Amino acid sequence: MKVEYDRDTCTGIFQCVDEWEAFTKNLDDGKADLEDAEEVEDGTFVREVPEDAEFDAKFAARVCPVEAIRIIDDDGEQLVP
Fold it and tell me: In CATH, what class is 2-80?
């Protein structure tokens, strides 16, 4: 399972930060950062979700008010949102 994060879409509400420790506040530009992620295209970051963090990752995606976070299963299917 992977998380895909569109940082350009992020508006800095930081609800994801409260739900999963992989997201951190970047107060310099008012957006969240996804730790240990690889930028796969301009502004889009991807990283694997550890098995013990799957619930938190899914919840972080669900609470994002601008749907900047997507959870993708191993078959490439979008799970959340």
Answer: alpha beta
Query: CA 40, 68, 50, 18: dihedral to nearest 10 degrees?
Result: 140
Q: 3-class DSSP state for residue 56?
A: helix
Domain range summary for the chain, segments of one domain joined by +: 2-80
Half-sphere exposure of 12 (CA within 13 A, CB side): 7
pTM over 0.90: yes
The whole-angstrom separation of Cα 72 and Cα 24 is 21
For residue 80, name the pLDDT band (cuts at 50, 70, 90): confident
Cα 60–Cα 79–Cα 44 angle in degrees, nearest 5: 65
Inter-CA distances, 70 with 4, 41, 51, 78, Å:
5, 15, 16, 7
Strand order in the sheet with 69-72: 38-41, 44-48, 2-6, 69-72, 78-80
